[in-house]
Write a structure and sequence with these properties.
The structure holds 2 protein chains of 2 kinds. Chain A is 0% helix and 57% strand. Chain A has strands spanning 3-7, 10-13, 19-26, 32-38, 44-52, 55-58, 65-70, 73-78, 87-94, 102-103, 107-111. In chain A, a hairpin with a 2-residue loop joins strand 7 and strand 8. Chain B is an all-beta fold. The chains are: A mainly beta, B mainly beta.
């Protein structure tokens, strides 16, 4: 069966510090991978998606970047965090043929 | 462009009452999928149901039922005899394939359901 792992679960970082969130998928090959952000009291906003190694597309301009160094690994990064980067970050995957998305357990990021 | 609207921000019901969560969507695609996800306080998103655009049959799963109506672009979710464990944020979502070849899932803003014992 397929599983998705996302870590860390919670993170408190000072403004200006770097960020690295990691997500890995097991039990499937060539998944489509996604990073979503959920701001407090709001829905989920798609940040990045990837259909293959090294292929990253951004949905919204922001202070964050994403990378996919391996088929089943997706990393969300920032060089310098802003207060507005606080939120709940969710990694997700879909089969290449779709359609439903399966989510990791999320990372609650607080920038102080 | 895809859009999902969940007009109900928060709903409170007393345990054992029935409750319906509304979802209205917009899409230009002829083939698309609709979903409901549950987000308990722990934060993880739990997949509840998927419906494709060609299947308008209503579905019942235990205390949960879903009413999909293409004519009104709605995909409503009813919980019968609600329980405290149903307290969560519920998201409606729409998925369609983009010209870029990926599956884009658009979420509504969620409805927070509180079931009071």
């Amino acid at each position: 069966s397929q599983t998705i792992h996302q870590w860390p679960a919670t993170l408190v970082q000072p403004v200006g510090s770097p960020l690295s969130l990691e997500c890995t998928v097991e039990g499937t090959s060539n998944p489509n991978l996604y990073w979503y952000r959920q701001a407090a009291g709001r829905g989920l906003q798609l940040l990045f998606y990837s259909v293959g190694i090294g292929q990253i597309s951004s949905e919204v301009p922001q202070n964050l970047s994403a990378s996919r160094p391996q088929d089943r690994q997706f990393i969300l990064s920032s060089k310098k965090l802003l207060l507005s980067d606080s939120g709940f970050y969710l990694c997700a995957w879909t089969r290449a043929a779709g359609p439903e998305a399966f989510f990791g357990q999320g990372t609650r990021l607080t920038v102080v | 462009a895809q859009k999902v609207t969940q007009a109900q921000t928060e709903i409170s019901v007393v345990e054992k009452e029935d409750v319906t969560l509304d979802c209205v969507y917009e899409t230009r695609d002829t083939t698309y999928y609709l979903f409901w996800y549950k987000q308990p306080p722990s934060g993880e998103l739990v997949f509840l149901i998927r419906r494709n655009s060609f299947d308008e049959q209503n579905e019942i799963s235990g205390r949960y039922s879903w009413n999909f109506q293409k004519s009104t672009s709605s995909f409503n979710f009813t919980i019968t005899a609600s329980q405290v464990v149903d307290s969560a944020v519920y998201f409606c979502a729409l998925s369609g394939r983009t010209s870029g070849g990926y599956q884009k899932v658009t979420f509504g803003t969620g409805t927070k359901l509180q079931v009071i014992p």
